[in-house]
Amino acid sequence: MRHHRRPLIALALVALALVALFAAPAVALEIVIQPNGTVGQDTWIGADNPAQTHGDEDWLHFGGNLSGPDEFRLYIRFDLSALDPSSTVDTAQLELYQFVHNGWIEYNYSVMQVTGAWTESTLSWNTQPTFEPVAVTAFSGSTWQGGIQMWHAIPGLETLVQHWIDNPEQNHGLMIKPTDNFYGYAQIWSSDYTSSVLRPRLVINGEIVANDGSDWGSVKRLYR
Q1: Is 219 exposed, middle or buried, given 0-12, 13-18 or 19+ CB atoms closer than 10 A?
Q2: How many helices (H) and strands (E) does the chain have?
Q3: pLDDT tens by residue, 30-72
Q4: Would you say residue 17 lies in a domain?
Q5: Number of domains in the chain
Q6: How far, in Å, are 73, 93, 111, 126 from residue 45 at the CA level?
Q7: Biggest alpha carbon distance in the chain?
Q8: Is residue 14 part of a domain?
Q9: d(CA 137, CA 97)
Q10: In which domain, by residue range, is 33 found?
């Protein structure tokens, strides 16, 4: 018996080498999550009317109005429950369509991870959930100032999106607010807007796996 072990081991190693050689390489895939008003969760709140809700409106704001002074904050959450924790996110960015702006918006804005539960129908300035004190990322409104009737991307969300996929119970979305000052506000179409192609979208690139073990095509069909 000892005489036959080496050939068997050699054959096993050759087989493993062939599997490794012909295995499909990992490729970067993209999904675009762009919900409608029925499943989308997005709204805005203002400090000057702290009890008012805006969840059924077809636009969103961030920035503010100095006449109040009235700071505006944007809240948004995307459902990632169909994505398995074995997924690997390479890049993720939020894309918002600004149809107009009011005043001067060339200030800095912070993107915060929300840590408490909320719904668009009940959220107001008075009922804001908790959020992490350190911003996930920040961006300048300089490109937004002259960029109406166009898309604007907020990149740098891959670590947060990966965290949400790995820990779905902690996905409470994100909030955009002025970092230090404001003198105007961006106006953005929400998930309630009639044109589906202009609603907020989350674009994820990476190795995406569906929760039910289906192939990539089934994951893609869930969203776009």
Answers
A1: buried
A2: 4, 11
A3: 999 999 999 999 999 999 999 999 999 999 999 998 777 799 9
A4: no
A5: 1
A6: 5, 22, 15, 9
A7: 91
A8: no
A9: 19
A10: 26-223
